[in-house]
Amino acid sequence: xxxxxxxxxxxxxxxxxxxxxxxxxxxxxxxxxxxxxxxxxxxxxxxxxxxxxxxxxxxxxxxxxxxxxxxxxxxxxxxxxxxxxxxxxxxxxxxxxxxxxxxxxxxxxxxxxxxxxxxxxxxxxxxxxxxxxxxxxxxxxxxxxxxxxxxxxxxxxxxxxxxxxxxxxxxxxxxxxxxxxxxxxxxxxxxxxxxxxxxxxxxxxxxxxxxxxxxxxxxxxxxxxxxxxxxxxxxxxxxxxxxxxxxxxxxxxxxxxxxxxxxxxxxxxxxxxxxxxxxxxxxxxxxxxxxxxxxxxxxxxxxxxxxxxxxxx
Length: 313
What we know:
It is a single chain. By secondary structure, the chain is an alpha/beta fold. Helices cover 42% and strands 15% of the residues. It has 14 helices and eleven strands. It has helices at residues 4-9, 26-34, 48-61, 77-86, 103-108, 120-128, 152-162, 176-184, 194-197, 206-214, 236-245, 251-258, 262-268, 292-311, and strands at residues 15-17, 39-42, 66-71, 91-95, 112-117, 133-137, 143-144, 167-170, 189-192, 220-223, 230-233. It has an eight-stranded parallel sheet with strand order 1-9-8-6-5-4-3-2. The chain has a three-stranded antiparallel sheet with strand order 7-11-10, covered by helices on one side. Helix 3 (48-61) runs parallel beside helix 4 (77-86) and helix 8 packs across helix 14 (292-311). The longest helix has 20 residues, at 292-311. It is globular, with a radius of gyration of 18 Å. The mean pLDDT is 96.
């Protein structure tokens, strides 16, 4: 299954595992890469030296390409970038910031750069900044999201219409059928996040994984748009946020209510009541926790099955 993305990353299949905070450590990234996709470490939940440790362990666990996702809204980004360069990582996905900030420096060091966007406008800005590919992520996605609330099936063809570099679709994709649909709309590959949260190798807490498996349609919601829009499972903390909105809160009120390390508390430590539980709408279609390699294999089987069905229309 070769195309522009598999050639760019030197991988077997056009499937990228999203670099999600508190979920994407070296075990998950190396497992996906070993299975033929592209695994990403989630630097957003790592202090610089912790990231270095995960990079070193990932290099020992796989001889195949892997990358690092760097959300630029977190501190110590300069140190993170330096460590990535020092450790010889060859693929970096940047997000939540201006792609011009680090793209030139990364590319000067022989690194392939991809930027995550939520609109046509920012896809073109990323292309102008010199990135090698773009991830266009729809409103369905978990975690920090775009303010435009554009769905994946609307976003992908609009970006494809104007973009020249390779396009990766993200948001609401957890099956081979979803992958096929995204590629029919113009994507060269897909980035899968929520489905890999419910994997054996994800570094998140088992209780959080089980809550993802138990989730139904309508159990997630996008909120806190005044800070950084985030999609999360509805729990006690979420309900407290909704209650706070009835008081017409300021941005400072929302920030104080959110506090520090709320996502770590929920996804990594397993506090299902007071933690921030970030996951996509597609959680309603995730029914079990499996090894990452098996998840990737099932996506590929489902993709081929759907493609054969469409061929018979």
